[in-house]
Here is the input.
Amino acid sequence: MTRAEAWTPTERLDEELAAVGFYLSGHPLEDMIEALRRRRTELLTDAIAKAAAGAEALRMAGVVRRKQERPSRSGEKFAFVTFSDPTGEYEVLFPPESLKRCRDLLEPGKAVAITVRAKANEGEVRFFGDSVEPVEKAVENVVAGLRVHVAPRSAEIEALKKRLEGVTNPRGGEIILVAPLELGREVEVKLPGRFTLDGSVRGAIKTAPGVVFVEDV
Here is the structure.
C-alpha cells in the first residue's frame, strides 16, 4: 500500500472546508492575526464597527471564497467577491478598474490583504475594493521574529530545526527556541540565520511535535 504524504496545515484546512463547509481546525489566517493588526488591518467585526462610526478607508484581510463577475452597463466587468476571516464572511464589490488590477489575486483559496472603501447606511455596511496584495507580502518584515516554546526533548528540537531548513530567508525574521530547565528556569537558543515567517510556516511550526506555543518577538 502506497503511503500518502501528510497534508500541510493549509491543505488540511482547505480539505476541511471542502468536506464540511467550514474550518474544523481553525481559520487559515489565525496565525497571522497579530502581524496583520500591526499593519492596522481590521478583522470583519472591527471593520463593521469602525465603518458604522464613520471610517471610510479601511485595510482588511481574508481568504477568497467566491468570485462572481458581471458586466456593467458599459460592458466592462465588475465583481462581487466573498472573503472569509476568523470572525466571519463578507462581500466586497470590485468596480471594473479595480477588478482589472486585482483579478489574478481574487481566485478562491488565496489569502489576501485588501484596501476598501466602506459605506454605512441605516445599519448596513458595504465594502468596495480598491487594491489587493498577497497576505504574506502585507505582513512581510512586520514581525521581527518568533519565540518558539518547546518541550525539552532533543530529538523533537532537532526535527523542528530540520523542518526550518527550507524556509531560510536573509530578509526574514529570527527564531528563538525556548526550552524549560529544572527549578522553573528556561534556556533560549537563537537559530542561526533568518526565516520566512508567513502563515504557512507559522502554522507548520505551531503544529510541529514538541512545540508548546509560539509568540511574536
Summary: The chain has two domains: 13-137, 145-216. Residues 61 and 113 are 4 Å apart (CA to CA). The radius of gyration is 20 Å.
